[in-house]
Specification:
nine-stranded mixed β-sheet, 17 strands, MTA/SAH_deaminase, TIM Barrel, 14 helices, metal-binding, Metal_Hydrolase, binds zinc ion, Urease, subunit C, domain 1, about 35% helix, about 20% strand, alpha/beta, globular
Length: about 450
Amino acid sequence: MTTVIEHCAIATVDAAGTEYADGHLVIAGDRIKAVGPGPAPRELPDDGSPLRRVDASGALATPGLVNTHHHFYQWLTRGLAQDAHLFDWLVGLYPRWSRIDERMVHTAARASLAMMVRGGVTSAVDHHYIFPRGTGDLLGAEIAAAREIGVRFTAARGSMDLGASDGGLPPDFAVESTDDALAATEAAIDTHHDPGFSAMLRIAVAPCSPFSVSTELLRQAAELARRKGVRLHTHGSETVEEEAFCHERFGMGPTDYFESTGWLGEDVWMAHCVHMTDADVAAFARTGTGVAHCPSSNARLAAGIARVPDLLAAGVPVGLGVDGTASNESGELHTELRNALLINRLGPHREAALSARQALRLATYGGAQVLGRTDGTGSLEPGKLADVVLWQLDGLGHSTIADPVAALVLGPPAPVTLSLIGGRPVVEHGRLLTADEHEIARAARTESRRLADCS
Ligand SMILES: [Zn+2]
């Protein structure tokens, strides 16, 4: 299939920040063939494939959004522990989370993905770290869901092996043994990981956090990931309580602790990174370690404001994340562009903190950077994968904002009129094409109630 999109504004998010007030895109198969000003050339190469022309008047085309941090299973436990900070929130939720099973995870993953994809996400990550014994193939369940929805997916195989009796935060019944966690993670890589350019599925190695994982698991997980050539992901420097935990237990802050266990590097990205000293920011920059900025979750759990302007100025790769929907009930990424801009302006850099274009870059190219996929995703350029979103900006919510990028970032959530993932339409006129969202809503409610009843 060849798709020609014309008469729209285009923000390519390439290195030069090229934009067209009125431009075109030509997509052949799963790749972008051409991007440029004005209408598409009248003569298109005829390779015999069907041709679709899209008149995208009133829309803005951007690269698909990349969500770099999430916990899909939390879709079933939204709206709980509403006024708690991270540690109290976790302790309150662990008992319920430890009762999840394969059907619940599959349903929660479908719901989480449907919500994000309908809002312009084309690449998604799930960090899943709770694997109760005898509850089925939880990683396989979310991989199946991602395949059904048709999203480009990284399953970050998480783990926890530091239960309360060993000084960790999670209860003992919620953790695995170190050996079980490593063996299952290696098996996930061997079974599922696709290193190819157009991969729809990759695996990352993702022990949960310094207060739920042993030093030995962190060390061995880093070795495993490097032996297999996959990326590393975890939570880092999220709260003052985590910082105090690291100083008390290891005699150093989280970033120094991560460095001592092999966890800084250009193959690593960490969620949050709120409580960072200047030396921590410099260490991330020196090693090329990436950050998943999750502004709504950080606000919901009163964690603080990540130093995004400082991270960017130092050259640290930064993407955006929804985080789990038990700490960000919205579940949408396109609203995080606005939240990232607004929340960072409340910090010391004030109005210079983050521009609308920087917010768009975080959500697209920045996300591709932290996932190590700028070769094929993150910007609209010939030769890249056709992960493209059209946002309709001539309706009530946006028509008086002349700058389309400002309309997208500062205005209300913009309707997605078309989303392509690898050239395949997954959303048209705000409707998900690959799944029935009403059926998913009903199933998610049923599974959420089932989890509440059995915990
Ligand atoms: Zn998280």
